[in-house]
Amino acid sequence: MTNDHDDKSAELSFEEAMQQLEKIVEKLEEGDVPLEKAINYYQEGMKLSKLCSEKLTKVEGQMEQIVNEQGTFEPFIVQEEE
Amino acid sequence: MTNDHDDKSAELSFEEAMQQLEKIVEKLEEGDVPLEKAINYYQEGMKLSKLCSEKLTKVEGQMEQIVNEQGTFEPFIVQEEE
Amino acid sequence: MTNDHDDKSAELSFEEAMQQLEKIVEKLEEGDVPLEKAINYYQEGMKLSKLCSEKLTKVEGQMEQIVNEQGTFEPFIVQEEE
Amino acid sequence: MTNDHDDKSAELSFEEAMQQLEKIVEKLEEGDVPLEKAINYYQEGMKLSKLCSEKLTKVEGQMEQIVNEQGTFEPFIVQEEE
Amino acid sequence: MTNDHDDKSAELSFEEAMQQLEKIVEKLEEGDVPLEKAINYYQEGMKLSKLCSEKLTKVEGQMEQIVNEQGTFEPFIVQEEE
Amino acid sequence: MTNDHDDKSAELSFEEAMQQLEKIVEKLEEGDVPLEKAINYYQEGMKLSKLCSEKLTKVEGQMEQIVNEQGTFEPFIVQEEE
Amino acid sequence: MATDRYLTVSALTRYIKRKLEMDKHLKEIWLKAEISNFNHHSRGHMYFTLKDDRSRIQAVMFSGNNRTIKFKPENGMNVLVKGEVSIYEPQGQYQLYVQTMEPDGIGALYLAFEQLKEKLHREGLFDPLQKKAIPSYPSHIGVVTSPTGAAIQDILTTIKRRYPLVKVSIFPVLVQGEKAASSVVAAIEKANQLNLFDVLIVGRGGGSIEELWCFNEEAVARAIAKSKIPIISAVGHETDYTISDFVADVRAATPTGAAELAVPSQTELINRVNTLTRSLHMVVKGTVLEQTRRLSQVNKSYAFRYPEQLLRQKEQDLDKSVEKLGRIMTYFLNQKKEGLRQIRIRFGQQHPQRQIDQAKQHLQLLYQRNDRAMRKEWIDKQTSFNQVLDKLTLLNPLETMKRGYAIATEKNGQIIKSTKQTQPGDLIMVRLQDGTLDCQVWGIEEGEEI
Prior knowledge:
Order of helices and strands of chain G: HEEEHEEHEHEHEHEHEHHHHHEEE
Mean pLDDT of chain G: 86
Low-confidence stretches of chain G: none
Number of strands of chain G: 13
Radius of gyration of chain G: 85 Å
Number of helices of chain A: 3
Structural class of chain A: mainly alpha
Helix content of chain A: over 70%
Strand content of chain G: 15-25%
Structural class of chain G: alpha/beta
Mean pLDDT of chain A: 76
Oligomer: heteroheptamer
Order of helices and strands of chain A: HHH
Number of helices of chain G: 12
Strand content of chain A: under 5%
Distance between the termini of chain A: 69 Å
Distance between the termini of chain G: 216 Å
C-alpha cells in the first residue's frame, strides 16, 4: 500500500501536494471532524508533508549538484577596450 | 456476547458511541429510571465509555505511530531567514 | 546522458543558446513557475549560460590563436620618413 | 586546406584583398553576425591582412632592387639656368 | 628580358619615351594605382627616365661635336660697312 | 659622307642655301620638332650656315655690262651726263 | 492799302530773272573752270559746281546737252564750258546752264591716263595675284633705262654698295619722246628673249608728266605685263604713279629705291645668316634644355623620387584595416559578453533557493498546523468524553451500596422488592458494594411497608 500510495503521490507535484495538505489542515482546523477521519486526515497530512519535504530535499540536492557541476562558470570580465 | 457487543460496537464510531453515552447519561439524570434499568443503562454507558476510551487511546497510539513513522523526515528546522 | 546533452547543446549556436536562456529568464521572472519546473529551468539556464560562456571563451581563444599565428607578420611600423 | 586557401588568395590582388578585408570589417560592424561566423570572418580578415602585408613587403623589396639597379644613373635635375 | 626591353625602348623616340614617362608619373601621382601595377609603372618609369637621359646626353654631345667640326660657331663677324 | 654632303651642298646656290637654312630655322622655331630630328636639323643648318657665309664673303668683282641691240654684252662705262 | 507797296518774293525773282535775260553777255558765256560737287543725276542731268581759286558758280547740264560729251566729267577736272546764266526761281539761285563741255588742255592727258588705267585695270593687268615675286638673292639684274643720267648711276651705285655679288646688264633706251615707248618695249622683249635675268628694273628719273609719258603708254604697260621676268618699275617722283607702276610687279618711288628692292644688302644678309645660325643654335639648344627640364621635372616628381610613398599610403590603409578588424572583433565579443553578463545577472536573481526556502517555511507551517489541529481535536474529544464519563459515574445507581445497602435479586436477576416474592428455602443473590452473596432464604419476617 505504501508503494501504491507513493506512486500515486509521485504523480503529485510539489504544489499539488502542498494544496492537499493545506486543505487537510484547514479541515482539521475547522474541528468537528470525526475522530477516525481526523486521524486519517492527520496521517494523510503527515504523508503529504513528508512528500513535500522529500521533494524539497531532492530539489535542494539538485541545486547543489547543478551548482557543483557548473561550478567553474565564474562570470568573465569584459575587457576594457575603448 | 462481548464479541457480539464488540462487533456491534466496532461498528460504532467514536462519535456515535459518545452520543449514545450522552443519551444514557441524560436518561439516568432524569431519575425516574427503575433501578434495574438504571443499572442496565449504567452498564451500557460503562461499555460505551470503555469503547470511547479505547478509541481515544487507539487514536493516540496511531498519532504517535504516525509521528514516529514519518519521524525520519523530521521536518527541517527552518533557518531563521527573514 | 551528459554527452548526449552536450551533443545536443553543441548543435546550438551561441545566439540560439542566448535566446533560450533569455526565454528561461523571462519565464522565471514572470514568477508562478512550479518548483520542479523552476529547478529544471534553472538547470537548463545554467547549462545554457555555461555553454554561452564556453563558446565566448573558445572564440576569444581562437582570436588569440589567430593573432599569434599571423604573429610573425608583425604589422610593420611605418617608417617615419616625411 | 591552408595551401588551398593560399593558392586562392594568391590570385587576389592587393586591392581586392583590401576590399574583402574592408567588407569583413563592415559586416562585423553591422553587428548581426552570429558569433561562430564572426570568428570565421575574423580569421579570414587576418589572413587577408597577412596576404596584403606580404604583398607590400614583396613590392617594397622589388622597389629597392629597382632603385639599386638603376642606382648609378642618378636622374639629373636641371641646373637652374634662367 | 632586360635586353628585350632595352631593344623595345631603343625604338622609342625621345618624345615618345617622355610621353610615356610623363603618363606614368601622372598615374603614380594620382595615387589609386593598384599595388602590383605601381611597381611595374615605377620600373618602367625608371627605365624610360634613363633612356631619355641618355638620349639627351647623346644629343648634347652631338651638338658640341658639330660646333667643333664647323670650327667657330659664329660664322663671321659683320664688317661694319655703312 | 661628309664629302658627299659637301658636294651636294656645293651645288646649292646661295639663295637655295639661305632658303633651306631659313626653312630649317622656321621649322625649329615652330617648335614641336622631335629631339632626334632637331639635332639632324642642327647639323644640316650649321652646314648651310657655313656655306652661305662662305658664299657671302667670297665677293667676285662683277662688271656692269651694256646689252647692245644685237643682244650682245659690252662693258659699260658710265657716261657723264650730257 | 499800305501793303500795295510790298512785292512778293516771286515777283522780285521774276523781275531779276527778266533783267538777267535781257543781258546779251550772260546769254553766251565761255568759262574755264574746275569741276567739283559733281552729281550725275539718275534722270541724266548733271549738277555740279564750277570754281576757280576764288569763286564758284552752280551749274547744270541737262541730259539733252551732256549726251554728246566724250569724257566722263569728274571732280577736280578742268573743263571748258559754254552756257548761259539764269535764275532757278524756286530757290532764287542764279546758275550756269551748260550747253557744251570739253576737258581743259592738261586735263586731256590726265583723262587719257585715267581711261587707260581704267581699261587695263578692267583687263586685270593690275591684279595683285598676277604679280611675280622679286627673287630674294638675284644673280643677274637687267636695267632698262637711259644709259646716261642720274638714274642709271643711282641704280648701279646702290647695287654695288648693297650686293656686289650680283651681275648688272644695262638696256640703254630712250625714256622720253615719241620713240621712247617702242624703245622700252623692245628692251623688255629682248631681256625676256635672253632669259638671263632674275629681275628687270625699268624706269627713269623724275620729270614732268609729259616727260614721263612713255611710261603711261599702253604698249609699255602691256610689255611689262607680258614679261616673264619680274619687273621693278622706277619712274618719276614719289608722288606720281605711271601706268607702268601699276602694271609692274613692284613699284619703286625712285631708281635708288628700285635698286634697293632688287638686291638684298650684303650686310643684312650676313646679319641674317648670323641671326639664323644663332636662332638655329638657340632653338636646338633650347629644345635640349627644355627637354632636359621636362625630364628633370618628371624626375623630380614626388611619386617618382619617393616611390615608397606609393606603399606608405597602402601600408597605412592596411594597418588601419587590421586595427579596425581587431577593434571591431573585440567590441563584438565584448558586446556578446555584456549581453551574456546582463542575462546572467537576471538569471542569478532567479535562483530557486528562495522559492525553496519559502516552500519549506510554508510546509513547516502546514505540518505544524496539521499536528496541532489533530492534537487539539483529540484533546477536545478526550475532554468531552471525560465529562460524560464523570457524569455517568455520578449517576451510577449502585453508588448507595457504598453506605451498606444491598440489592437482593432472584437467581434470574429479578430484583426482590417484597418479602412476598420469596419463600423460605429460595436461593437468592445479594449484591453488595463489592460483590454478590449467594444466599438461601431461611425465614420471612413481614414488616411494615416503608
